[in-house]
Amino acid sequence: MSLPQFRLLRPTTLEEAAGLLGKHTVRVLAGGTDLIPSMRQKLFEPEYVMDIRRLAGLKGISTLPDNSVEIGALTPLSDIERSPLLRQHYPVLTEAAATVASPVLRNMGTLGGNICLDTRCLWYNQSLTWRKACGFCIKKDGDLCHVAPGGTKCWAAFSGDTPPALLCLGAEVEIVGPAGKRRVALSEFYTGLGDNYRRLEQNEILTRVFLPASSAGYRGIYRKLRIRGSIDYPLAGVAVALKRSNGQVADVRLALTAVNPAPVLVKGATQFLSGKPMNEELAQATGELAAKAAKPLTTSALTPEYRREMIRVLTKRAILAAFEN
Amino acid sequence: MSNEFSIIGKPTAMVDAAEKTTGAGKYADDLSLPGMLVGKILHSPYPHACIKRIDTSRAEQLDGVVTVVTGQDAPNPYGILPVGHDEHALATDKVRYVGDNVACVVAVNEATAERALELVDVEYEVLPAYFDPEDSMKAESNFLHDNKPHNIEKDYHHVFGDPEKALAEAAYVAEARYIANEVTHAAMEPHSTLASFEIDPHTGKPGRLTVWSSTQVPYYLQHKLSLVLEMPMAQIRVIKPLVGGGFGGKSEVIPLEITAAVAARKARAPVKITYTREEVFWAHRGRPRTIIDLKTGSDKDGRITAVKARVVQDGGAYCSYGVVTILYSGALLGALYDIPNIQYDGYRVLTNKPVCGAMRGHGTVNVRFAFESQLDELAQKLGLDPAEMRRRNLLKPPCITINGLRVQSYGLPECIEQVVTRSKWNDRKGKLPKGRGLGIACSHYVSGAANSIIRSDMPHSTVNIKIDRDGGVVVYTGASDIGQGSDTMVAQIASETLGCSLNRVKVVAADTDLTPIDIGSYSSRVTFMNGNATLRAAGEVKQQIAAAAAKKMNCGSDDLIFRDDHVVRRGLANAPGDQGAISEASVSGRVEGQILRGSLQQKRKDEGPKNTLSFEEAVVAAIDFHGALSGTGSYAPPLEARGGKHKGAGVGPSPAYSYSAQVAEVSVDEETGEVTVHKVWAAHDCGRALNPTSVEGQIIGSVWMGMGQALTEEMVWKDGMLMNPGLLEYRSPSSVESPEVEPIIVESIDPEGPFGAKEASEGSLAATIPAISNAIYDAVGIRLHESPFTPERVLAALRDKRSQKKIDMTEGIDPTAPVRFREHGGSLWFKGKGPERHPLDPSRREAAEAGGDD
Amino acid sequence: MKKELIELKVNGRCYETGIEPSKLLLDALRQDLQLTGSKRGCDDSSCGACTVLIDGTPMLSCTLLAASCEGQEITTVEGVSEHGSLAAIQKAYGDWGGAQCGYCTPGFMMTVKHLLRENPEPTEDDIRRALSSNLCRCTGYTQMYQAIKAAVEAEQKGMAAAK
Known about the structure:
The complex is a heterotrimer.
Chain A: E1 7-9, H1 14-23, E2 26-29, H2 35-40, E3 48-51, E4 61-63, E5 69-72, H3 77-82, H4 84-89, H5 91-97, H6 103-108, H7 111-116, H8 128-134, H9 162-168, E6 172-177, E7 180-185, E8 205-211, E9 219-225, E10 236-245, E11 248-257, E12 264-265, H10 269-273, H11 280-293, H12 304-324
Parallel strand pairs in A: 1-3, 2-3
Antiparallel strand pairs in A: 4-5, 5-8, 6-7, 6-8, 9-10, 10-11, 11-12
Helix pairs in contact in A: 5-9, 11-12
Chain B: H1 17-22, E1 37-43, E2 49-55, H2 57-61, E3 65-70, E4 94-95, E5 101-107, H3 110-117, E6 121-126, H4 133-136, E7 152-160, H5 163-169, E8 172-180, E9 192-199, E10 206-213, H6 218-229, E11 236-239, H7 255-267, E12 271-274, H8 277-283, E13 289-298, E14 304-314, H9 322-331, E15 342-349, H10 365-382, H11 386-391, E16 399-400, E17 406-407, H12 412-422, H13 425-428, E18 436-446, E19 461-467, E20 473-477, H14 486-498, E21 505-509, H15 526-553, E22 560-563, E23 566-569, H16 579-589, H17 595-605, E24 612-614, H18 615-626, E25 629-635, E26 657-668, E27 675-685, H19 692-711, E28 717-718, E29 721-722, H20 727-730, E30 740-746, H21 765-780, E31 786-787, H22 791-801, H23 820-823, H24 842-849
Parallel strand pairs in B: 1-12, 8-31, 10-11, 14-15, 20-21, 27-30
Antiparallel strand pairs in B: 1-5, 2-4, 2-6, 3-5, 7-15, 8-13, 9-10, 9-12, 13-14, 16-17, 18-26, 19-20, 19-25, 22-23, 23-24, 26-27, 28-29
Chain C: E1 4-10, E2 13-19, H1 25-32, E3 51-54, E4 57-60, E5 73-75, H2 88-95, H3 105-118, H4 124-131, H5 142-162
Parallel strand pairs in C: 1-5
Antiparallel strand pairs in C: 1-2, 3-4, 3-5
Helix pairs in contact in C: 2-5
């Protein structure tokens, strides 16, 4: 399967990139692990592809004067996974990064790419021939949904591993476009829709990720449901960042992935757990809370009922592990 | 290690190992020819439709397109079985599954060809389609093939003994329905074929055809090409380059192989077609989804008294090997245990899905899963140790089973003892911590079919050997090395027989112009049959050398031993290993390695008789006498091994059977249903391990592939759409969740195998699935009746056992129940019930262009 | 789309070649440079048969645009053997049955080469994790672990002998 024809832009500076973004309609190519397979399947047939791998200054992890941490969007996931700084202060992020796909794909895939990852669905991530045979869907070229027939909403599932961890850490992202820079909370970045899943204009790119100093030092656990121990996208994922003091939960954030069109923070988890000593029943109840926030559909392997059930189990386990370790 | 042999039985690197590790070796897609064009195939978007019209004119007008081939360019039907000539390389009148082959665009490059595919206009008339075999069997109209009423490709009904009576009288009976879902080979190399015609110097028209193809069966390919292209076989040369795995997926002629040749003829240029991974899934030929209703009875001591099996296989749209598959499923109920009464009802059913065919453990795997699971259940009813249950039902060879299979060598008892001992079964079974368990199961497989697909008296393998004055041994074998190491096996047998070193042997393999016929690499026949042919060919040349050497050495040719590059008289002190004697002989025989001059020198120097000759000296002596040396050997299975007389008796018989016993250790996460396989002890009776490294590799690979089918692999269908046509979603296991496999070689030394060798690469697969399911029972007390044992199926069974709130987590465990996807989506459209298609949908656009007002 | 002239540095040699911007590195290697050692096994970036080293890091050549790799050091399986002889890992894969059909082997060679440079004495667990980017359908991976351990030993013996 060859790629569609396109013109390739290879800017070396952010200014140059911003200029090009203003001029052309482009698809941004970073690690390529999401876009290239999708282009083979003709899910995208852009006139221009902008390869941003050479952009200076968007790679690396550094501490800012206010003790917050800045991560360049082009930082490979393998660097995130191995960063001693992140491991020490933001372990939920290194845990999540270490489970993405496979080691080689983590060498290629970037943090920015994982945040911007296209939503996935068994009826969408297929070749042009396949989709033609089946009938096109809302997300690409069609007006029906195979997952929820009769519906008008796209339910493709967001399947990145690091965003739930970043949500737990209260991360913000920097976005550059023709009008300049803006900075938004990651929780505001996703729309909750399967098709227009992110608030990023065609002519914008995500450049940096910021982790607030206040989120440092939380214990972190990421648990992922997948069939193989490597390569697979998550079929359900749970990230937990937890602070304990005096044998009690001082603060906790809980986020889910792969069961909704966006990664979601579980509302009410903080109030539910804060100030309580941890035990199996409490963890179990937190699992129930999380399962209510999960709305899996038949977008991936394993049935929705099972995946929701696993959100319950993985949440319980993640909470207990985060409290104990 | 045995000193009996110098090459046989020694761990040996494959003769082509360096080609593989350096990337220098060429697979079909690595080849190119000057002026080569690329072919791309247009596939059907409908599961069942008549083709009303194909208009290729728009595609042909695209710059860079050379020609478009359709079914009219190659209208002759073909099929791997003589009874199943129901396929066309490109459809002539009907398409029968989503992905069926409609047309082929030939262009200067892949991108152009892909663009042109969008410009081929095809008008279809959509027909009702059948996706479930039990639905399909009830069909009264719109059959897939007009000559197959009720879409039944073939059904067989066998009764041996009196199973009804035996079951009525049995002390214990177990009965259940088992379902094994569909799996595929997923060989790492996608199919690829390059075809090229030479211009005939006399007629000036396309003459001889050469085809390089990733195939397990070059001679069948040559035969089918001849049939479809209407060319004599003598004008067609098929060459098998390195093949990146087959597992049965390349054991018949795949549409691209014919299409490439037809396209090359029409385009008047070499054409290469390489499948995308998705096309490989459509080409398929994998293991069919199988529904097994099984009933087994035993007496109060645990002796099996009867087995009754009804097997329905979802065969897909064409016959392929289907008739053989459904027969193997019944025949291989015998030859593992002693079963006095058998009833078998097998149905091979056609459905509108890609074609199932032969896959590693052809026909036996799914039924073995059911049988070994049920045997475990019976053992539990009896309160008998499952290993002991199996011991009580062993055959007593040499014997002929009730269904006519001849068993000679039978290493199963030792296999069972080996795995029981190594896994510490007696100490650990039933005593592991909660959630962890051990399970045992056995299996067997043929060492080649005693009757070939195309019935004839022709030997199944023939091998030629040539030794010329360079002292090199060239073996010409039709055996197709697909990664299992058959070239190495052939080299080993030749060098052991001739007593020369391995690097003196060059193997020329699988080239229909050069190598004598061998029917292919399938049903684990190559070591047994081609190995025997090699043994005989080498034996013939050896006799010629021995006669000449005996003259020189003044002794009888029977007194000579060929070993370690020397020919020595039996019983003499300077036998091989005596370094002094060897180096002296080498010096006198070789002047700077030049055997020609050595020969002259030999004549002058050697007057009196000698006790030792170097291999080269002996060869020179023989060539001086005979001219260049050549020998031919062939193999045909003996008449006594060819089975009984009942209808369908031809499938199942083999000259020898391999045996396997396995113990699996697993743990089950009771909250998630996830199963982890920690270790598998796998004992395999391969007769004799010619190359222990390869045998162990085959055992481990089989067990591992069985584990894939048991836990992660499944082709998922929604109304004829394959939901996971790629390696990302098909989920062949990665290294992290693959268990440790301890291979244990058991050598029963078969009386007819080459050096006693039998099958090594398929028989182990079938035991793994039930060993795992039985271990899951030991761990958490649930019997799983549907494979793969995905976490959701395991969890559903656990909840069912605990009578907990049922979460409906499995889809249609009973295939007669409505498939849930039909209720909430999927391609409802096919049944005319779905939502309207989008105006931009190509099928609507095409309809509009065709004159519709839609 | 018009072809553009690019320069690729592969196994220490520079190649100038005209390619379309949409050409994948794997296709450029196989079709334009005739380096057919790297294989295509899937179309969804999941099998690892096309793995090459980009500036020393294993990456999938089927998921990189050839033009994106300009200016980077590309190492393919053809660049693994040393002075025309098999590298220790290549020899060991042959001896221990690490390669059966051999189609996935080039990808594994690159992954293992990288593993042993980063971690000269890997545990079996390290090896399993490092190999989990590449799919093999023949071996069940076990004999690869033995081969890698043997190669590590051979390297150590070689180094000891050189001292």
